[in-house]
Amino acid sequence: MHTAAGSDLRPLDIRALDTVASVFAASDVLSAVWGGDRTGMPANLLRALAHAGSYAFGAYDGDRMVGASVAFFGPPADRTLHSHITGLLPEYRGGGRGRALKLHQRAWALERGVDRITWTFDPLVARNAHFNLRVLGARVTEYLVDHYGPMDDGVNRGDESDRLLVSWDLRAPRAEPGEVVASVAVPHDIEAVRLASAQDAAAWRHRVRDGMLDRLADGLVVGGFDDERGYLFVRP
Predict the structure, then answer these.
(1) How far apart are CA 139 and CA 178, in angstroms?
(2) What is the per-residue pLDDT for 2?
């Protein structure tokens, strides 16, 4: 068992999902995080991944599971772990808990000779861009248009599932970004935009998609994220 250090909040215990009861609990928690989706991480698939040696852990507040994270290995030659899903219930976000869960995943990966962790996230979600690019220092490697196709959950329903693929180098020091030559803004709170107007949310989706793809096609790369300017592009 690993204790994840929060800030001034009570830390969470991170434990392996090594029982049938725990994988059902994790599936329920992840369903709640994604607005009631029962297909995102079904218990039987989670049980199979855990039994096969993948990264499968739950975050507990006492005896209550309040978050979970699941990752599986990429091609052995690349020594890569792909983090498929990580989530905490809303009332347990903040206070360094998300970072502690990611650092636990990093430590687990390093113990197994893994050099990098990859994952995807919605480019419209500013808080995730801030966390992934600024806090962790992951770098964007690809823009994936409608990567998962239609998704029937409370978070993604009715939207196209564009994603950014990021890579977190676990051994190299964080690279300093070069001179910023372009930027692509994102809304500060896309969830609020979606609740207020699906049309406005769709407009943001296409504006960000077109802006990022155009700059990538020009040979630029994402060098970081700024809370006011959005994605920052530099020359490689």
Answers:
(1) 13
(2) 43
